[in-house]
Amino acid sequence: MRRRTIAPPAFAPTAAVALAAAAAFAIAGPLAAQDGYAWENATELSFVSTGGNASSSSLGLKASLTGTDEQNTFKVEVGGIRSETDVTTRVATGTPASFTVSETTDAQLTAENYFLRGRYDRDFAEAFAFAGAGWDRNTFAGIQNRFAIVAGFGRTLIDAGESGRLKIDLGATYTIQKDVDPEPGADDAFGGLRMTVDATRRVSESADYSSQLAVDENLEDTEDVRADWINSLTLAINQRLAFKTSLQILYDHLPSNLRVPLFDGGGTPTGTDVLTPGDKVDHIVTLTLVIKL
Questions:
Q1: Which of 51, 89, 94, 218 could disulfide-pair with 99, CB 3.0 to 4.6 Å?
Q2: What are the sequence ranges of the domains in the chain?
């Protein structure tokens, strides 16, 4: 006889994502009503689910709203990735000839990464000024909440219309970072510099390549360098739908601490946790369906 117990599913958007989405559309709504702006919305969706002896689910969502006129560009983005795995524990009770198997399945969160950001650009001849703000959370990298504001200037080096574009900018930043397990006495607010390189290129009539690299330098601790590099290839199906594959590489020279259990030399748990730096490099590969409205 087999008895099975399954924990209630926990795969649901968190309050932080719902609040971030509400804030994004609260900001974008009044702006969308302004005359002279051309607005474009793009939503990226990805979902993977497995079942049976091994069960897992992964959901990815990204929505962006961009408004442009002759001199101004405003963009709001909100999104996240969340993955869960069902871990099944089986226990047999009885004798080898007659036994009962009990199963207990618990859903465990294995990845969680959310963000919300906005940016405003204004063109001046061949250069542009910009300002922006953002929030992100990556608990598996040790980051509970990170808020940042940035302002600076940039230049469009290449502008070939739909064929391609190359832009570079440099801005001053102010960051407030709250870690899941912060070091005692650590400074969670600091000023810095951010350099961004944004490139796009038309590969064929239906395919476009894009690359965005952002490098952040903490001016209070120059060893604290972070980078976010996204490379994407988009294949258009029609004017409204497209497939998009992306590789995102996240680098942190001084990664946040992670809490791990401590064992003694004989492999026995001590009941104590210690803090250790996480990996310096994370990567995220996504295959999404893009819906343009």
A1: 94
A2: 125-293
Which pLDDT does position 31 carry in this prediction?
A: 52
Q: What is the pLDDT of residues 140-167, one digit of tens each?
A: 888 999 999 999 999 999 988 889 999 9
Instruction: Please give the Cα distance from 228 to 223 (Å, whole number).
Output: 16
DSSP 160: -
Torsion (CA) 261, 262, 263, 269 in degrees, nearest 10:
-50
Q: Which amino acid belongs to residue 266?
A: G
pLDDT at 35: 57
The letter for the amino acid at 212 is: Q
Average pLDDT per consecutive 10 residues, the chain (293 residues; last block may be shorter) = 39 43 48 68 87 79 91 93 84 85 82 92 91 93 93 93 92 94 81 96 94 95 94 93 93 90 85 88 90 86
Please tell me the predicted confidence (pLDDT) of residue 19: 46
Closest-CA residue to 192 (of 155, 152, 156, 232): 152
User: In terms of residues, how long is the chain?
Assistant: 293
pTM of this structure: 0.79
Phi-psi category of 203—alpha, beta or left, where left has phi over 0 and alpha has psi -120 to 50? alpha
Whether 130 contacts 151, CB under 8 Å: yes
How far is residue 226 from each of residues 74, 134, 143, measured CA to CA in Å? 25, 15, 13
Distance CA 204, CA 263 (A): 56
Whole-number Å distance between alpha carbons of 128 and 39: 20
Q: What is the DSSP letter of 161?
A: G
Which neighbouring-strand residues pair with 143? 138, 179
Residues 5 and 105: beta-carbon distance below 8 Å: yes
d(CA 73, CA 68): 4
In this structure, the number of other CB atoms found within 10 A of the CB of residue 50 comes to 12
Phi, psi for 282 (deg, rounded to 5): -120, 150
The DSSP letter of residue 9 is P
The DSSP annotation for 195-217 comes to EEEEEEEE-SSSEEEEEEEEEEE
